[in-house]
Amino acid sequence: MTFHRTEIFEEEYQELARLAKVLAHPARLAILKYLAEVKACISGDISNEIPLSRTTVSQHLQVLREAGFIQGQIDGVKINYCLNPENVKRFRELIENYLGQINNNSCCK
What we know:
The protein is about 60% helix and about 15% strand. By secondary structure, it is α+β, with helices and mostly antiparallel strands. A 3-stranded antiparallel beta sheet has the order 1-3-2. Helix 4 packs across helix 5 (about 55-65).
């Protein structure tokens, strides 16, 4: 008999895994870091800072927005992006809680 992951793993683990998967691309990490430094900007500014095409940056922004890491506010034909502090804090809490559960004692030396 097989089980679906929602039947086996805690909801917190599932949420952490989903968010970690979103962050498993170096471009998305770079975008988040850039947004943390500048506080808010339009996607074109991100394309100027990160050596990727505007289309690629836009796709990564969409993934980050859908996961809740960033939020965008429409300003005419542009979208101003910034970090979503509540969801960034939630991810930090999830990862810290998880890492706190791991025993640092290893049998391997």
